[in-house]
Amino acid sequence: MGRPRTPIGTFGDITYVKVAGGRVQARTRYRDDDGRLRRVSATGASNKEAERNLKQVLAQRPSHVATGELTGDTSFANLVEVWLDDLDLEGKLAPSTRALYERNMRLLVVPAFEHYVLREITVRKVDQFIKTLATTKSYSMAKQARTVLSLAFGLAVRYDAIAKNPVRDTTRLKKPPSLAMALTAKQVDAIREAVRGWRRAPGTPGPPPDGQLEQIIEVMLGTSARIGEVLAIRRCDVDVTVSPATVRICGTIVSPSGKPTHRQPHPKTTKSTRTVAVPSFTAEVLRQRLVAVAKDEPEHLLFVTRNGTPLTTNNVRRRLRSVMAEAGIEGVTPHSFRRTVATFIDRASGPDLAAEMLGHTSSKITKEHYIEPDEKVNPVTAEILESLGPRRRSDDA
């Protein structure tokens, strides 16, 4: 029998040899990951069957599977599943961040790339996708999509499925200009009045509000804490025996997908843990909440549902939106109070103290995103420039 040679990709040539029983053995040499050539063989009733069996043997070799489930011919959808599994395996992300990554990937990115294999996804395709998303949706969505894309392709590079991360060479997103808007004292009072009067008019159906929303607002204004951090305050975190009273911000409320809402034992970042002294209006609210939960254990939350379970941040935001819409007040979110605190403190003592209050490691973020720009220049400039005015002529000139 002759020895036809059939090239099979990178596996080298195949040699066919007749063996006992009239069967055919297909042999080839295979370069393993360690660089050494090894002989691999398989048999079949014919050349074609032996070749097919040989390919199956090669495909099942650990060295051919190489570093895992990914190759250049892997679908993008499969990469997503491997990437998500890898995130869980590392276990470095907070549950809320893990859920956000998956949501952004599935809703923003997968629809655009699910029908491609990895080697087909080029820098140009990724660049156009991100630019289109920024134009048709928002800068924020494009930035979030870029983040998860880069992480997933980074994994593909580590698995040797692709040579380089196509996200790295895309055009850098340019953030549109935006200004942090703080509330004035007058606006804060209007919000207080609207919340106090919401659904409390005579004849309003249903039970009246429990009063926690207005208390939460006072705590946000007195601590600069995020809404989740306020909802995570426990009895043991508050000290009203000192003057001024203090609150330790050391947790946040999270609602992971498919899991119950619960208290996370650290704020948004572990470096955000801090103890803040609060103004008298916030201390008064904290005393009221301590009375309400006086019979509960020290770890009990100050703000809870009627059933004693943690309040969710979404429910508080939804309630605030309803109140503001009914009062005709626009643009107010829980973060508005955080920006207001940052701006008031900056005006009085500068951005460094504002950053410390908000739990930021640097005042750069505080100034860029939380402090409303001050258009007024220090009036001392008028006194300084007075000397540039026209000099009066002497009487005898």
Can you give a write-up of this model?
Residues 178-383 form the Tyr recombinase domain. Keywords: DNA integration, DNA recombination, DNA-binding. This is Tyrosine-type recombinase/integrase. The structure is a single chain. The chain is an alpha+beta fold. Among the domains are: 6-65; 76-158, DNA polymerase, domain 1; 192-200 and 208-325, Orthogonal Bundle (hpI Integrase, Chain A), CATH 1.10.443. The protein is built from 15 helices and nine strands. The strands form three sheets. The protein has a four-stranded antiparallel sheet. Helix 3 packs antiparallel against helix 4 (95-113) and helix 13 (351-358) crosses helix 14 (363-369). The relative contact order is 0.07. Mean pLDDT is 87; it is low at 1-12 and 63-68.
| CATH class identity of the domain at 192-200 and 208-325 | Mainly Alpha
Q: Which residues form runs of ≥5 with pLDDT under 50?
A: 1-12, 63-68
**How do the helices and strands follow one another from N- to C-terminus?**
EEEEHHHHHHHHHEEEEEHHHHHH
Classify the secondary structure makeup into a structural class: alpha+beta
Task: State which percent range the strand residues make up.
Answer: 5-15%
CATH topology name of the domain at 192-200 and 208-325, in short, is hpI Integrase, Chain A
- N- and C-termini, Cα separation: 127 Å
Q: Quick one: how many beta strands?
A: 9
**Biggest sheet, strands in spatial order?**
1-2-3-4
| Overall outline | elongated
CATH superfamily of the domain at 192-200 and 208-325: Intergrase catalytic core
Proportion of helical residues: 40-55%
